[in-house]
Amino acid sequence: MNGNSCCKVVATASIHPLDPLSADEIAHAAALIRKCFDWGADMRVETIDLDEPPKEFVRNFVEGNTVRRIARFNVYRRGVMGVVSGKLDLQTGELLSHVYRKDARAMVAVEEVLQIEATVKRDPRFQEALRRRGLLADLDFLCLDPWTVGNFGYENEQGRRVLNCFVWMRTSPLDNYYAHPVEGLHALVDVSTLEILQVIDHFAETGDYIPVPRTPRNYDAELLTEFRPPSAPLDVVQPEGPGFRVAGNKVTWENWDFRVGFNGREGLVLHRVGYTHNGRRRPILYRASIAEMVVPYGTPERSHYRKNVFDSGEVGFGRMANSLTLGCDCLGTIHYFDAIVPTVFGEPRLIENCICLHEEDAGLSWKHFDLRSRRTEVRRARRLVISSISTIGNYEYASYWYLHQDGRIEYEMKATGIINTAACHPGQPGAFGAEVAPGVVGHIHQHVFCARLDVEVDGPNNTVVECDTRALPVGPDNPHGNAFLVEERPLHTELEAQRDVDFSKMRYWRVINLGTANWVGRPTGFKLEASSPVQPFTNPESPSGRRGQFIRHQLWVTPFSAEERFPAGDFVNQSRGGEGLPAWTSANRSVENTDIVLWHVFGLHHLPRPEDHPVQPCVVCGFKLIPSGFFDQNPVVDLPPGRNQASCCA
Ligand code: NI
Hints:
The chain is mostly beta strands.
């Protein structure tokens, strides 16, 4: 660790309309809500976050202007179905609006989940199921993970907020319990009342139990006895400090500037991403976030068919974000942003060092050797990284935005942590999974993310054009059989703009501004490169398929609407489906030359490997936004020549 490498000192800045709510603002909002609803100690908070002001206000905002701060909230009463959503003026204390959604279930809070394990362990039905398996003596070593249940129309789940527990066990105090699944045993719990609705033992009738695999598979340094020799030190040192500047939540780096945002549901948000070139600031993204994700599992066996979890919309990437560790999570000269989210009781909770900002070497930027003059020109690239990591149960999602000097914006989601495990008879993982260790099976699944990209390429009004490559038939226009060309087609309406990746056409999409032209007279634009498409396999009419319809297409385009934020709907927990993108786009609004939002769906297709166990090395998916006729020429031809003085020959 470099002792000097955390720069916490930042210029002070007055409040900006897009700044996340402060601890005081969250506490104040919670106090106001408490007064409005008079639920006493039973008030529960799902969400208190910033209601972002209208875009025109933000665009015209000048530092020092008065800002009206409005909080949006979702709250509920312990033991009572439904959620109250509303908005509050934090200056006047006025409740601006509120609506009671009687069928909505709030996201699941970690404080609620932690009570469940002890409650289930006390249940006589659960203890009896353990006794049948010869596991009652291991009760203290059992670990129960409650999973969201989806909506399969079961009678005992109607009108309730329900979680289904899966069971694992430790064989010693720090042992990795996911190596020891207790197969086929579940407890269905009403999370609001802590009632145990049902204990399900899939083997109770046959008595043909799958044994708990007992071989320890550990990753904790305390438990490992052998390490490979340490590598030679590799330090990222910036003796003159980092190349970025931070003022409040605003970041300026190279030609880029943007604002960092954060909320309990999406986690990290980038606001107002722009690039200044030839003295002119050019807007690119008004707002960018990962707005939803779902993990559909592919096995119909026992209770595993229920696993179709929306880790963002049901739990919250922001609420589950980690405090990052200097020199471990983050290498180099780091600036950390803290984040604040409300607890389920409405208290502000500080997540220190939640968002990491730093620079990385990015290899070669460009090079040419002129054979005749024998001159070489070469420039190195660097990139700015903005990241945060969330832990959802067994899994870690590490989210990285990269800004490159040449105008590229890259996004990577790195999935790590521990795969969800089930037990099998050794050598018999079944058709829907793979054995990752003897008797431990990882079922096939996907991780499907949806980026919400509120674009403003050179201004608010944009159009998406689909770019397909076509080979011409051999004939008078293609006498040699070599001809192929790109055909561009604007996507006019929402239904027309539900698009899929097509490898046979090398398809990509450009976001263009019809009101601005580059020096060859073409509309300026950015290309969306869908580098991690996922083909969905869940039946779209099935209970799980209906809830996650956004995964049916890799691209959706909608006209901007401030209330259209989450592609599977505002309340995903036990939703019936149909909300969000499928509902909005059925209006088939125009998406041509107007303020549009791109919804890009991408992810991972995952049949677990033995290498994913006991802890999975990061697997990566993402996408790229690449300037495409946005600049008149290579925007980094002006990178100054230079040589890294710290480099030496080994
Ligand atoms: Ni996976």
